[in-house]
């Protein structure tokens, strides 16, 4: 064995520090939840929302296709003929009763695929829990959006600013039938308060990250993207410097938040005394 091979063998244990050294310049993945939320995938499946047209009429026509296709049998729908003097939906019928049992729901999104009017979609909210069975069964009054097109925010749900913008991503990405030839082509109606939402992208490269609000998730999960989708300035040494800056800014914001909370706690304690 040569001297070079002997030295290489003696120092081989340093190879175990390669991965550790690489991670020294990477931002921490730990987040101070619930104070800080991680951006969600654009097509993540959360709790459902019943949408309305831009004129305020409900999209649900009570056809019960969502209930029929549901593999968990968690959806209960009953349609009723529209009143001639004040119709609820543009069709002949509307969804009079609509319930989803979240003790059964597996968030497969088959109901979204089956809906012919894009009435039911899934938001990205999954931070919700229940203390009794009644709260787990969402009724139509809790599922349908309000007069501004905003999802109903129930007491046990943790909605944050901007999360209402990520509704119906799965429906917009797979209409019609997930054919990439139609990607980027609008195939759905407008929604109350938001108009016609931008098309999701990913298969053919036809996408607008700003319009679809997927830019934050692309920055967080760059390691899962194709090399062609990662900007050149985020690769190599430039990328390490960029990630180190992000980590430093995040840590600075955490320290400022911690100092402010301590200051507020001292002020509250002094006021109480």
What does the model show?
The protein is of the alpha+beta class. It has a domain at 48-206: 2-Layer Sandwich (Alpha-Beta Plaits). The strands form two sheets. A three-stranded antiparallel beta sheet has the order 2-3-5. The protein has a two-stranded antiparallel sheet with strand order 1-4. The model has no long low-confidence stretch (mean pLDDT 81). The radius of gyration is 25 Å and the shape is extended. It has helices spanning 3-10, 18-23, 65-69, 110-114, 133-136, 140-143, 169-174, 209-212, 215-220, 236-272; strands at 48-50, 75-81, 93-101, 120-122, 137-138.
Could you name the key traits of this structure?
5 strands, 273 residues, single chain, two-stranded antiparallel ribbon, extended
- CATH top level class name of the domain at 48-206: Alpha Beta
CATH architecture of the domain at 48-206: 2-Layer Sandwich
Helix content: 25-40%
State the end-to-end CA separation: 77 Å
Describe the SSE topology.
Elements (H helix, E strand, L loop, with lengths): L2 H8 L7 H6 L24 E3 L14 H5 L5 E7 L11 E9 L8 H5 L5 E3 L10 H4 E2 L1 H4 L25 H6 L34 H4 L2 H6 L15 H37 L1
Antiparallel strand pairs: 1-4, 2-3, 3-5
Summarize the structure.
The chain is an alpha+beta fold. It is built from 10 helices and 5 strands, in the order H-H-E-H-E-E-H-E-H-E-H-H-H-H-H.
